[in-house]
Specification:
It contains four helices and seven strands. The protein has about 190 residues and is an alpha+beta fold. A seven-stranded mixed β-sheet has the order 1-2-3-4-7-6-5, sandwiched between helices. Helix 3 (about 160-165) crosses helix 4.
Length: about 190
């Protein structure tokens, strides 16, 4: 069995540079999840490391396949210096542990909610999972293992999350695009939804 985490970390550093900070969180009954921080100009990126150690498994499956199944890590990008975004480390680790803890299969278009602000004073308690392949390329693994996908997280206000539940992820992303929404602004307001 290949230890995928060194390969994942190498892919992250190739795409984003060397991390300038890292933190580890362990939840009862789960493997350790690390969050790496990368600074690039006025943008800071937080990436999980540990979520892809095991494939995500459909919670209705009788047995979890230890080899096959989707693998992913999460990447959040925000503008630096505008909020205490370093406090996102624990919420991001909680989201990265959700496949192990709750049996979730995290896919693009899904909503993930932590129930509290992502960082102190944040107008966001949830994120929309974006499409992989933009910032960090998928990491191909030997057959029969699925590739590791690096899923961008797009913070959503509670109103946006409620609107997305009714209208869908695509409609919300189109609304953001039409309004020129800066999804990296850690203090942005909700996009107009009427």
């Amino acid at each position: 069995m290949v230890d995928v985490l060194p390969l994942v970390e190498a892919r992250l550093t190739t795409a984003l540079g060397e991390p300038d900070a890292r933190a580890a969180v362990t939840f009862l009954g789960t493997d350790r999840i690390e969050v790496l921080r990368f600074q690039e100009g006025d943008v800071v990126r937080y990436a999980s490391l540990g979520m892809s150690a095991h494939p995500m498994t459909d919670p209705t499956a009788m047995l979890a396949d230890p080899v096959k199944g989707p693998r992913a890590e999460l990447v959040l990008s925000v503008r630096a210096g505008l909020a205490e975004t370093d406090k996102v480390l624990r919420p991001l680790a909680v989201l990265a542990a959700s496949p192990q803890v709750e049996g979730l299969v995290v896919t693009p278009g899904a909503s993930l909610d932590v129930g509290d602000p992502l960082w102190p004073g944040a107008p966001f308690t949830s994120v929309l999972v974006g499409e992989p392949g933009g910032l960090v390329e998928d990491l191909e693994l030997d057959d029969p293992m699925d590739p590791v996908r690096f899923l961008p997280l797009l913070p959503m206000t509670p109103n946006e999350a409620a609107w997305k539940r009714v209208n869908g992820a695509q409609a919300l992303q189109e609304r953001w695009l039409a309004n020129g929404t800066d999804l990296r602004d850690p203090a942005r307001r909700s996009v107009p939804l009427d």
